[in-house]
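for the writeup, i need someone to sanity check this before i put it in the appendix. the sequnce is what the collaborator sent (i think, or maybe the updated version? ugh). structure was predicted straight from it, no edits. if anything looks off just tell me and ill rerun, i have time this weekend
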Amino acid sequence: MGAAEEYEEHHSHDGEKGGGGGSADEKGSADGGGGGGAMEREEMQLYTEASAFQGAAVVAMIERHDDDIGEEQKILEITMEDGVTMSLALDSGERRLNELGYRQELKRSLHFPQLYATGISMMSVFAGVVPMYGQGFNDGGPAGLIWYWWITALAVHLIALSMAEISSSFPTAGSLYFWAAALAGPKWGPLASFITAWMEFVGLAVGHAMVSYYGVTILQVLILISTGGANGNGFMLDHYEVFGIACGVVLICCCINCCSIRIVSYVMLFSALIQVLGAVALIITLPLVAPTHQPASFVFQTFFTNDSMPSPAYSFVICLMVSQYSLYGYDGVAHLSEETKKSDRTAPAAIVAALSTVTFVAWLLLVVFTLCIQNVDDIFASASGEDLPTTVTNGMQPVIQILWDAFYASYGSGLGAQIFTGIIYTSFFFGTVSGQLGASASGVCSSP
């Protein structure tokens, strides 16, 4: 028996009870003239929602409203077959799931701050800027880094706005392939969903492994500069040690994600706080510490290409990789929709807000790093063979060399560079945690 038929049967029984107590429609007419029909239709809609949520166990339902939360919210009082009465509050996200015929499975405990923080952590303020800075600088020059960034940012924001709109209509876990199936229609939906799911799997598996591995290379340089540097016989991890630590980091992040979503959400809040405040502190501190600065013409007007680039157009495309690698992962917010209160509104807002925050803060980092270069040759200087290194990083991480040169030139010590490098590494670590969180919510596993 369908929900509508159950409603009609239940409604007729209610009218017979009490010997003239009247149906809901008659009561509505007595209270407000012709409003009974509207009340009956709304009650039937609520009954259908309750039936979709609880299945055949629902045998009776009444409606009431709760205005204590500051807005109208539907509360369903459901009498189960065993006679137990329960109250079920459906927020807008849950009601939308019911309309889609999708049964609520996960507990909703996330709010906008947790979802916003998760989005920032998934994209990670430093994870794209730091490892890709040297390549972008060589391929497009400082001005290429600065201005090409906004070309990608504009395109990515248009995609994010589209995803935000779709997520408001389909606030489901495993968002992307569910969206593909729904938007492609019955004929092409299975194929679209299949292709989308496998593309997402490959992207998540490779992308999150890269975040973990790149993070350990940052840790490798942190250990190097803390033990004397490449030009002072500092200790450097070899390739096997880097890979082993990266695998260990992935396992640690898996253990964190085995905790409840409430605990993980607080980890994400801490992650976003560390990343944003650390980036802001770096943006303010580095220009104040650096004894000299590059002229504005160098930062904003100097384009050049590497000799290995066949053409300026090719150089332009390669330089775009810096921003492309930095501004991805925001769709992971939508994967958590089913665990978010009022997800049809919260998830879209978190997608756009997190992307906008990372876009602006990371761009400021690019400007500050370029502005505070003390010697362009030093940040890429590397020695091989029997040649002795002349810099502490030996060309491994240009951004860390920029930090070291600025602090060492002013204070004769690289302690400040070590502290900020540690903050940069935490961005990669929490990026791995959040990446696994989004992948698990989408039904895709991630490993190196």
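The chain has a mean pLDDT of 78. The chain has 16 helices and three strands.
thx in advance!!
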